[in-house]
C-alpha cells in the first residue's frame, strides 16, 4: 500500500479536526493538503499507527497556524464568526450528538476562548474520543498536563455551552416561519418566534457593512430583519439550508451568496442568529 492509499481514508477525519480547530473550511483544506505533503516524505514502515501519526501532523499544523493568526483575530473588525460549512441534509439520527454539536456556530465561537493547545486537547478528548496517552503523544505533553488542560477547557466552555433540544423537523419549521414572517413584514409573527434574550451576531469582516456589536432583544432584532428585507434589491433569492449541522438561510444576488444566517433553536424559540456576510467566508457556498 502506497502513501496515498494510506492517507486517503483519513482525509475526512483530518478535515474534521482542522475545521473545528480553525473555524475555516479553506484553511482546514490547506492544513489537510500540507499534512499530505508531509506524509509523502515519511517512511511509513516506521509508523506504528497511521491514524495517530496523521492526527499528530494536522494538530500541530493547526496549533502553529492559530498562534500565527492570533494577531489577525485580535484586530478583526467586528464579530468574528466561523466560515459556514454547508451540508446536503440534516445530521442522521445515528450520528453522535457530540459531533453535531461541535460543528455548531456557538460551539466554534466558544472555542475561540481557548488557547491553541487547550483547543487541541479538548477537541481530541471530548469530540474525537482519543485517549490521554494518545493525546499526550500528539501534542508532546505529559498525560497529567493534558488532563489539566482538558479540565481547564471544560470549565471555560461548560457555562456557555449551547442548548440543542429541538428536533431537526422543529428547527426546519421555525426556519421556514422566520423566512415567511420576514418576507411579509409580519412584526407580531416574528416576535413570536424569538426568545426573550435573542441575540444577533454579524460578521462582515470590515469588507461589507455589518453591525459591529450584537443586536439584543426581540423588538430590536425583529425591526432589524424586517428593515433589511424591505431594503432588499430586486432579484435577491433566499433559500433554507442546513449549515454547520444547524438550520439556516442563504441569500443570493446575481448568482453569488451574499449572506448566511444560522439559527440556534431551543425551547421552540430562536435563541441566537449568526449572520455571516464577509464575502471571503462565502466563497465556498454552493450556488
Describe this structure in words.
With 287 residues, this protein is an alpha+beta fold. It contains 12 helices and 7 strands. The protein has helices spanning 3-7, 11-22, 25-39, 50-74, 97-101, 105-111, 116-127, 132-139, 143-158, 168-184, 187-191, 218-230, and strands spanning 86-87, 194-203, 215-216, 237-243, 246-253, 256-266, 269-276. The protein has a 7-stranded mixed beta sheet with strand order 1-4-5-6-7-2-3, with helices on one face. It is elongated, with a radius of gyration of 20 Å.
Characteristics:
single chain; 287 residues; alpha+beta; seven-stranded mixed beta sheet; 12 helices; 49% helix; elongated
Number of helices: 12
Shape: elongated
- Poorly predicted regions: none
Q: Give the termini distance in whole angstroms.
A: 38 Å
Concise account of the structure shown:
The protein has 12 helices and 7 strands.
Topology:
Layout: H1 3-7, H2 11-22, H3 25-39, H4 50-74, E1 86-87, H5 97-101, H6 105-111, H7 116-127, H8 132-139, H9 143-158, H10 168-184, H11 187-191, E2 194-203, E3 215-216, H12 218-230, E4 237-243, E5 246-253, E6 256-266, E7 269-276
Parallel strand pairs: 2-7
Antiparallel strand pairs: 1-4, 2-3, 4-5, 5-6, 6-7
Helix pairs in contact: 2-3, 2-4, 3-4, 4-8, 7-8, 7-9, 8-9
